[in-house]
Fold this sequence. Notes:
This protein is an alpha+beta fold and 86 residues long. It has a single domain, classed as Complement Module, domain 1 (Ribbon), CATH 2.10.70. It has one helix and five strands. The chain has one helix at 2-11; strands at residues 23-26, 46-51, 55-58, 62-64, 76-79. The strands form two sheets. It has a three-stranded antiparallel beta sheet, with no helix packed on it. The chain has a two-stranded antiparallel sheet with strand order 3-5. The radius of gyration is 15 Å and the shape is elongated. The N and C termini lie far apart (46 Å). InterPro entries: Sushi/SCR/CCP_sf (IPR035976), Sushi_SCR_CCP_dom (IPR000436).
Amino acid sequence: MFHLLQFRSTMACTTGPPAIENGYVSFSSLHNVTENTPNVWKQWTTLTYKCFRFYALVDSATQTCSAGKWGDTVPRCEYSRTTKSS
């Protein structure tokens, strides 16, 4: 039983998603945060990034918690005079 619990805890992300300059992570809810441990994100939690006004998102807008870590490619926000908001 201990090994099963230990395995399950290693599958969760124990750090929040990576922060990005000129943008933020958009949460529709916090139901994917592990109960009683608000700093632990459940396996397969997918979060969406958005950029501030006048910035455009480059790369994927989402990050997924998989095998205890967030995706390798962190999106970024680049200045764009033609973009009002995302």
